[in-house]
Each structure stands twice: as C-alpha cells, then as structure tokens.
Amino acid sequence: MACIRTWSFCYMCHYEFGQMYWLVIVKGLMWYLAM
Predict the structure, then answer these.
(1) Does the reported pTM lie above 0.90?
(2) Cα 16 from chain centre
(3) Cα-to-chain-centroid distance, residue 13
(4) Which H or E run contains 1?
(5) Which pLDDT band holds residue 1 (cuts at 50, 70, 90)?
(6) What is the Cα–Cα distance from 15 to 32, expressed in whole angstroms?
(7) How far apart are CA 14 and CA 34, in angstroms?
(8) What is the C-alpha separation between 9 and 2, in angstroms, rounded?
(9) DSSP SS3 for 35
(10) What is the pLDDT of residue 8?
(11) CA distances (Å), 33 to each of 7, 19, 26, 29, in order?
C-alpha cells in the first residue's frame, strides 16, 4: 500500500512538473515571437 501511495505521489509530482515545463516553453515561445 505504501509503495502504491509513493508511486501515486511521484506521478502527481511528475505531472505537475510536466505542466509547469510546458507553460514555461509556451511563454518562452510567445516572448520569442513578440521580439
């Protein structure tokens, strides 16, 4: 049970990081196009 909980937590952290990563890429692209 603890292993599943840890895996779920890691997955959530990875998902959050992925969203943040894409947001940074999109913002960077918008800034690049605006220049």
Answers:
(1) no
(2) 4
(3) 8
(4) none
(5) low
(6) 26
(7) 30
(8) 10
(9) coil
(10) 75
(11) 39, 21, 11, 6
| Alpha-carbon span 11 to 28, nearest angstrom | 26
Would you say the C-alpha torsion 13, 19, 22, 24 has a positive or negative sign?
Answer: negative
What angle (nearest 5°) sits at the alpha carbon of residue 8, between those of residues 17 and 12?
A: 20
5-35: per-residue pLDDT in tens? 777 777 777 777 778 888 889 999 999 999 8
- What distances in angstroms separate CA 21 from CA 12, 26, 33, one per listed residue? 14, 9, 18
Residues in the chain, how many? Answer: 35
H or E segment to which residue 8 belongs = helix 2-34
Site of tokens 């196009």: 33
